[in-house]
Amino acid sequence: MAYIYDDQNIFAKILRGEIPSKPVFESDHTIAFPDISPQKRVHILVIPKGPYRCYDHFVTTASDAEQLDFFKSVALIAKQTGTSEAHGGNGYRLITNSGPDSHQEVPHFHVHLLGGETCGPLTAS
Ligand code: AMP
Fold first, then answer.
1. Domains of the chain
2. Fewer Cβ close by (within 10 Å): the C or N end of the chain?
């Protein structure tokens, strides 16, 4: 299946500087910024700079360098936000939505990093 990437999505506009954001982290292939509607005290969105629609698209077509950069960046951001247990924090939750059943709103692959307080049960209907 070919993945269709809509370059008019909000995160593509943020990457092009058409919509303002305040990145808290940037690397060669990845940026992270606060969610505009935080669900927990810590709620950071981590996105690849490349045009990938969802997790499947990213892991099947992004280069090894992009994927390594992305997943290492998530860990660095957990450390930076003080949520990583390995660095004295109390833990965090990662969520990525992929497709309609997941309620993905923005069709640019992203991981939500949530923490700073208990996250509660895994899912809500
Ligand atoms: P998802 O449902 O996984 O696609 O999540 C999309 C997330 O993007 C939601 O949590 C929104 O609050 C967030 N969001 C939408 N627009 C912006 C924006 N301009 N800046 C930061 N976060 C945004």
1. 10-115 (3.30.428.10)
2. C
Considering the candidates 29, 57, 108, 110, report the single residue annotated as catalytic.
Answer: 110
3 state DSSP class of 112: strand
Atom in ligand 1 nearest the alpha carbon of residue 43: 10
Is residue 110 annotated as a catalytic residue, yes or no?
yes
Is residue 32 within 8 A of residue 73, CB to CB? The reply is yes
User: How does the average pLDDT of the chain come out, rounded?
Assistant: 96
Per-residue pLDDT reduced to its tens digit, 32-59: 999 999 999 999 999 999 999 999 999 9
Q: How big is the chain by its Cα radius of gyration, in Å?
A: 14
* Ligand 1 centroid, distance to 92 Cα (angstroms): 18
Task: Name the region of 102 (left: φ>0; alpha: ψ -120 to 50; beta: rest).
Answer: alpha
Distance 63 CA to ligand 1 centre (A): 25
